[in-house]
Amino acid sequence: MIERSVTLRIARSDGGSSPRSTRDYSIEARPKMSVLDALLAVVEEQDASLAFRYSCRAGMCGSCAMRIDGRESLACRERLERHGPTITIEPLRSLPVIRDLLVDMTPFFAKYTAAEPAFTGADPSMVAKVDEPAVVPPGEHLRDVVNTEIDCISCGACYSACPVVAANSNYLGPAALNRAYALAADIRDATGPTARRAAVAGEDGIHACRSVGNCVAVCPAGVTPLVAIQLLRKRALRP
Amino acid sequence: MHSAPDPRATSRAEIVWWFLRLSGLALVVLAGLHLYAMHYATAPANTDSAFVARRWSSAGWRTFDAFLLLLAVTHGLAGLETIVRDALHTSRARAVADVVFVLLSLAAIALGATTLAAVTHASFVDGPLDGAIWIAAALHSGLVVIATITYAALLVLAVALGLQLFRRKPIGWWSFSGQWAFALHRATGLGILAFLAIHLIDIALAPFAPRVYDATVASYADPYLVPMEIALVAAVLYHGINGIRLIVMEIADRRMLPWRSTAFSLVIVITLVLLAPSVVVLVRSLP
């Protein structure tokens, strides 16, 4: 395959209230080159000051989520050949920008924490002896009900794509509520519907979702937070 | 961050959520019948004071309209408050919004109820306010202003979107069908609510100032306002049908997921198909 020239139109800023600008970088796109590869090429060859976050480069850690041509995606999984000759790259929405494409995930994880994201076993103190972990036998429907939801990699793509989060900064958001469902539907979790309800059924919880579904459209892991929220409302929080 | 003082209690958000869905389903029937009577069985410009008098001579229609008034006002204002509360982040501001919207609902229901109650006393021939023809001119001017704002907003949005696509710039959220469904649901809801506010005033003229009412209704045939009449029917149809789609999506949850975009396309197609006969009725009625 022949190399082609691609322009990366990257949002640049120093974070906070500093003005945001865009700067174009021209690179030679190799076959199967990802957006992350292209960003690394910019840093190595043109501008070492460009800031972005990445880690695994395999679509598993969720660190490199950003908006590529307006859609939230993982830079490491997004191939250049899927885009035109100019690719616009911006940081995630609804999160404070630290610098360039690097956002502060603190609000995202604060809401994640508010949704009680930790698994609580039947013996939360772990003082008593736990002989065997809970077993969900193969073929049981018990796993199917959370099969999709447990794949969340907390990248923040759904949070950025949600217009409700953009309008209401108190809204817990798709990822936190997805996690709440994954635990609420897990028969081994001992938190119980009453406590779970306290965490997610308030003014800015499950009933603040407007069923837009952008979260489903952008999730790089195929998770469906919209469905998780619908299931939380329907039955998962019933005592 | 968010508050839920008693985890067992049903939250305000949950009550509003249920109310919007149940009242919405009832409105699909009530507003659907009302729409049929006013925009399909006859043209809006023909619904003069004699038409209203005939209709309201029936206790059944008065009861029907009372329920329609109650549900349309509360559903519309609850929907608007949902949008407003999304933008209000403190519990005090939200509490103020609650009070404001309850008062607005009560005022709108009081105006509508007064109109319905006045029917039994009014002759629909002469009214105490019949001399105030300026009210018809004011309502017509108000509608022209709303129409101008709507046309300008639509033009700006179309040009902005067209430019983005023409320049091959990313359109972000607007590449998702769910975002369009959401934005259209809110835009049509706001449009219907704006019409409802004007409608509550103009229909109040029927018993109190039938000549002014007739002049107001006749002014709806103004060619500049005709697209707004069509847009109103389209908005009611879309809002109702998309509301059903939302409820079906929530009931069917995971099973509905692969059909989300198809369902939205279907909503648009059904809206346009149902809209067509009303456009024919409207165009045929033009002088």
Verbal overview:
The complex is a heterodimer of chains A (239) and B (287). By secondary structure, chain A is α+β, with helices and mostly antiparallel strands. Chain A has helices at residues 35-45, 106-114, 141-144, 157-161, 163-167, 174-184, 193-200, 214-218, 225-236; strands at residues 4-12, 21-29, 65-68, 71-74, 86-90, 97-99, 102-103. In chain A, strand 1 and strand 2 form a beta hairpin. Chain A is elongated, with a radius of gyration of 20 Å. Chain A starts with a strand and ends with a helix. In chain B, helix 3 packs antiparallel against helix 4 and helix 5 runs parallel beside helix 7. Chain B is globular and about 60 Å long.
Largest sheet of chain A: 5 strands, mixed
Q: Would you list the SSEs of chain B in sequence order as H and E? A: HHHHHHHHH
Query: How would the global form of chain B be characterised?
Result: globular
Q: Average pLDDT value of chain A?
A: 90
C-alpha Rg of chain B (nearest Å): 21 Å
* Cα Rg of chain A: 20 Å
Proportion of residues in extended strands of chain A: 15-25%
- Biggest interface and which pair forms it? A-B, 46 and 36 residues
Order of helices and strands of chain A: EEHEEEEEHHHHHHHH
Straight-line N-to-C gap of chain A? 59 Å
Instruction: Provide the residue-averaged pLDDT of chain B.
Output: 89
Biggest β-sheet description of chain B: none
- Multimerization status: heterodimer
Count the E strands of chain B.
0
User: Between the first and last Cα atoms of chain B, what is the distance in angstroms?
Assistant: 59 Å
Unreliable runs of chain B, pLDDT <50, ≥5 residues?
1-5
Any chance you could write out the topology, listing elements then pairs?
The complex is a heterodimer of chains A (239) and B (287).
Chain A: E1 4-12, E2 21-29, H1 35-45, E3 65-68, E4 71-74, E5 86-90, E6 97-99, E7 102-103, H2 106-114, H3 141-144, H4 157-161, H5 163-167, H6 174-184, H7 193-200, H8 214-218, H9 225-236
Parallel strand pairs in A: 1-5
Antiparallel strand pairs in A: 1-2, 3-4, 3-5, 6-7
Helix pairs in contact in A: 2-6, 6-9
Chain B: H1 12-40, H2 49-56, H3 59-87, H4 91-118, H5 134-166, H6 177-208, H7 210-219, H8 226-252, H9 260-285
Helix pairs in contact in B: 1-3, 1-8, 3-4, 3-6, 4-6, 5-7, 6-7, 6-8, 8-9
